[in-house]
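Q: Predict the assembly, please.
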Amino acid sequence: NAGVTQTPKFQVLKTGQSMTLQCAQDMNHEYMSWYRQDPGMGLRLIHYSVGAGITDQGEVPNGYNVSRSTTEDFPLRLLSAAPSQTSVYFCATRTGAGEQYFGPGTRLTVT
Amino acid sequence: AQKITQTQPGMFVQEKEAVTLDCTYDTSDPSYGLFWYKQPSSGEMIFLIYQGSYDQQNATEGRYSLNFQKARKSANLVISASQLGDSAMYFCAMRELAPKSYNTDKLIFGTGTRLQVFP
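A: Predicted assembly structure:
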């Protein structure tokens, strides 16, 4: 099992560009989420999904879109990147009992 | 609303000594879970220990124990016999275990404590 995979590992964008951060899991977990991690801010929840077709906003959803068409995939879209979105992004899944599994992270820089 | 507070941005401890990392939480839900994660410099998030709000005993996992004081709403992590490899960021997190709806089913993190273990 690969667990939770994220691509790319690193990305540099120019302001205004769009991109999609990919997240995939092979554990058949219903719950998936995206966090961003900034120095001194901890991990903040961006969006999450409790199953295919169901998504909702977390603490810091502005500037990001998500969709969940399959159990396995939960992509995060930046429609028009801004320097404030420079961060490390983590995708995570969770079992029904609450054990959370994190992906390795994507380090995004917006110039 | 749920909230996790970690008031120690950084802690130092000598190797082989014990250290306590503080975590206080706020929730109106009677059923919740508390988690601690370790993030080494390599960046991955590593699950350490879990405590349920109805658990009668404090959780322990090897050198990690959770000092759960429900009335004070605190869930401090105690690391015994610190090792150099324990140097990392540590995050406390909380989740409601019986959310009223899916949009309250979230894992909320504190801002973290950076632990440095010196020889």
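The interface with chain B takes residues 31, 33, 35, 40-45, 48, 50, 54, 56, 58-59, 88, 90, 92, 94, 98-100, 102, 104-105 of chain A (CB under 8 Å). Chain A has a mean pLDDT of 93.
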